[in-house]
Amino acid sequence: MINYLIKQGKIIPLLFFVPVTIAGLLVPGYDMIKQQGSEITLTTYKTAILILESGALLSGLSGILLALGIMLKYKRFYLSSVILIVFSMSMISNGLFPMGSPMHGFYGIGLSLMLLPFISCYELKNEILRKTFFKISIISGFVMFIYFWSTIVGLDPHDYQGLTQRIAAIFMYGWIAYLAYELEKSVDV
């Protein structure tokens, strides 16, 4: 059972990308290159909003299940797990509140995600011995940092905010899935 909590973490990218893509296709005039996914919540297209919100809720729930699986299986790596839970709660908040509400993203607490790859490198240094994990983690962490920083300070190019969000999401959700993959492969302690 515990291994399934970790294994299911590999589908997190699908839980984000499939709903945001389908929802975007359902909104006339929505531009996936120019507009962020959350902008769909500002439209009047209820089906698209429901699909988008469902994806946010499911990806958040999946992240929480992964974090619980990590804590239950290893009885350590608590900081990584807590940060993953915090980020996942912000995703659930994205599914419950529309863009523009301070609760959308849970007051920005999802920014904590950019710390997760670095903290996981430290916490997992004796568990995952493949150097590839650490290289991918460091690159992903820096991409997350650059994306969040550029968004906050207004350097995210306006006409490409949808594209930059999706590129960053590849690193965010892809890294979480990769973490689940690596932990699934690691031996029980």
UniProtKB/TrEMBL annotation:
This protein's UniProt keywords: Membrane, Transmembrane, Transmembrane helix
InterPro entries: DUF998
Residues passing through the membrane, by range: 12-30, 50-70, 77-97, 103-121, 133-151, 163-181
Coiled-coil region(s): none
Protein name, as recorded: DUF998 domain-containing protein
